[in-house]
Amino acid sequence: MPLTVAAFYQFVALPDVRGLRPPLQTFCAARGIKGSILLAEEGINGTVAGSAEAIAALVDELCQGTLFAGRLDHLELKYSRAASMPFQRLKVRLKREIVTLGDPAADPTRQVGTYVSPADWNALIAAPGMVVLDTRNAFEVAMGTFEGAVDPGLHSFGQFKDFVAGSLDPARHRRVAMFCTGGIRCEKASALLLARGFSEVYHLKGGILKYLEEVPEAESRWRGGCFVFDERVALGHGLRELGHAAPDTPGGRVP
Fold it and tell me: Which residues does the UniProt record annotate as the domain Rhodanese (predicted)?
């Protein structure tokens, strides 16, 4: 039977984060779950795989169990499948940030951009004057991206703030739409842009993965494959495993 892969995150205050790691590690290990879960005082971020029953038990514990005591009530959650275990081991780690940007002004618990559903994304990015940003790293963009999206040329997400400072101007670039794999990087990226004076900031809810899951391939503006950080390498429309993706995806520049 194929395995279930769950990708999830939520920005939420977890001041007791150090005490959460051991029981969460034990819970996952006891059910044969593998993958990576990051914990920080700002929230949780993970991608894990296991049997359907094991993943269902983990999601139930995260959302309704005693460990997080109801704090993960807005968990962003996406499922996909894997023919074989895509992770070699289980890692539950404590971090300073669940996605590293290194700018305290980017606080998704205070403000984020406007969420756009996959069904509305095509119309948004085709709107006049819209700057469409791919907030992922350059090697991810090379595998696939949306038509005309700007590649900031990042080696790591922490460089995004420097790209914004050097290439974007809130007076000129009044409308910005951004996307990433599952949505978490856009939470911080949109918070950063709002903190720096950009007025209209949008981001794809659920990220590329939700778009590929919900938007029919015949209507899609996505080209190539979506890189994922496991042994499946890349996913395509319908979240099918590709294993690789075409590198010649069309991109754009900041106007």
Answer: 126-220
* Residues 177, 116 contacting (CB under 8 angstroms): yes
Active site residues: 180
pLDDT (0 to 100) of residue 248: 47
Mean of pLDDT values over 14-39 = 97
Q: The pTM is what?
A: 0.84
> 245 with 227: CB under 8 angstroms?
yes
Residue 194 CA: distances (Å) to CA of 5, 175, 187, 199, 212: 33, 11, 11, 7, 27
Angle, helices 160-167 vs 184-195, to 10°: value is 40
Q: Where are the beta strands (DSSP E) in 63-141?
A: 76-82, 90-94, 114-116, 130-134
161: its two tokens: 């703030």
pLDDT tens across 31-45, in order? Answer: 999 999 999 999 999
- Residue 246 confidence class, pLDDT cut points 50, 70, 90: very low
Task: Tell me the helix, strand and coil percentages in the chain, rounded to 5.
Answer: 30, 25, 40
